[in-house]
From TrEMBL:
Keywords for this protein: Magnesium, Metal-binding, Molybdenum, Molybdenum cofactor biosynthesis, Transferase
Catalytic reaction annotation: adenylyl-molybdopterin + molybdate = Mo-molybdopterin + AMP + H(+)
Organism listed in the record: Zafaria cholistanensis
Matching PANTHER family: GEPHYRIN, MOLYBDOPTERIN BIOSYNTHESIS PROTEIN
Family the entry assigns: Belongs to the MoeA family.
Cofactor(s) named in the record: Mg(2+)
Gene Ontology CC: cytosol
Name of the protein: Molybdopterin molybdenumtransferase
Domain of life of the source: Bacteria
Start and end residues of each MoaB/Mog domain: 205-350
Amino acid sequence: MLPEVRPATFRRSVAEHQAAVRTLLAGLPDALGTQTVPLAAALGRTLASDLTAPRPLPPFANSQMDGYAVRAADLSTGPVPWATLPVAPPIPAGTAAPPLPPGHAAPIMTGAMLPAGADTVVPIEAADPPQFPAFVGGDAPFRDHTTVTLPASFAAGTYVRPAGSDLPAGATALAAGTRLGAAQLGLAAALGLAALPVRRRPRALVLSTGDEVAAPGTELAPGQIHDANTTLLTASLAEAGWDTATAGICADNAAAFEAALADALAPDPDVTDLVLTSGGISQGAYEVVRQALAGRGIAFGSVAMQPGGPQGAGLLALPGTAPVPLLAFPGNPVSSFVSFEVFLRPVLCELLGVPPRPLVQAPLAVALDKPPGKLQVRRGILEDGRFTPLGGPGSHLLHALAHATALALLPPGPGHLDPGTDVPVLTMGDPQ
């Protein structure tokens, strides 16, 4: 059951708003439910229940090397440090191995089933001669009187992969909540599983607002800019494993915005797990999101952060729709992106197993000035272990964001930071 957040205004620290977002979304994992999907569709999904191994892995004892399957006791029957044994028919991979006759050595390939009676594999390079007889893997007929000389130094179990040595039957192969990558799907395939139970992908409705905003690909009227926020936020959500829907760009009209939001939620309100808006929440005269939703369960206020100070959050209650968590981000593109990284991504990491941004401590390469008492998030790069800012602190500087590989979290406190000051840095990898 999602908690109710009463409409209000607030002034919060970053930590306080992070906690409010975490509380708002606490019920998200339970709301997602379970579905079974083929392995090909499970990449990046979250395992819904513990995966128990239906069979041992490997399912039978097999050879780790190309060589000879033998009984270790047959290698040390006399005073000399080797044994000459008759060669049994070969055992290729993928066939049922017949029992090993006592006192024999069977040519065996890597991964082939160890025959009953054998407990050791002697690598081919340790044999004399150090190659298989001509009838192994060729067209020559098996010769019953062929022999091979093997050293007596190989103990029982050498170069043998016992059944279940990787994973015994009935053991937990993967725990519920595991995010499924290539290695996890490979394990499921090796266990013979063609499908897995996963959580339903969460779904968000993303809305941008503003008369000044036009869709990419359209001509700009005087005073307009192209909408970057819808792309920024839907791409960020997709990276975090979400499905998204959009409702276009909403004009600066509170009644029209509320109607567009209700229409977008009405067809199947239970499918929408989060509404994410950008713009319209500051102190201006045309703050459409704030005007429309302040009485609908959403609290608006300010957070001690730059960029991204204006914020809104709450449980949206519109007539005719089910209550749904809503986060309202500022309209400047960098402010929206930083809000996602600081407030939403950490909660998704905690609740849904989304991989977190690596956090490191790094010294500043240059001096930086910032508003005292606020967390300032600066775009930049990590170079030689030091953080170098790109561009200024402005929340409209998308070019710097596109080339950034890190976000420095300049802590609240003094407004000036000297070169060499250690600061927390979120690493984002190579720029796209």
